[in-house]
Design goal:
It is built from two helices and three strands; from the N terminus they run αβαββ. By secondary structure, it is α+β, with helices and mostly antiparallel strands. A three-stranded antiparallel β-sheet has the order 1-2-3. It starts with a helix and ends in a 16-residue tail after the last strand.
């Protein structure tokens, strides 16, 4: 079986070039506030994620709302050094 989930996932990841994340403060309103059990106007964070392929085309987009104090942000960067 050549089209296993693992092989398809590996092929998809080989196409990826970059993923961007954006965090910005916002006031929660309407459905976002209600879903999080808060009142409209409560402080929150909007988190958007976009995955691009090697040609710069967006492959995946996701947008979430979080309470302002519910996220711990950790960033690790690996750098290749050309010799």
């Amino acid at each position: 079986m050549h089209n296993t989930l693992t092989s398809l996932f590996g092929e998809w990841h080989a196409m990826l070039a970059r993923k961007s994340l954006r965090f910005y403060p916002t006031a929660l309103t309407g459905d976002e506030a209600e879903t999080l059990g808060m009142h409209s106007g409560c402080a929150g964070l909007c988190v958007t994620r976009v995955t691009h392929d090697r040609e710069g085309r967006a492959l995946e987009y996701d947008k979430d709302y979080w309470l302002h104090d519910a996220i711990c942000l950790r960033v690790e960067v690996a750098m290749e050094v050309a010799m």
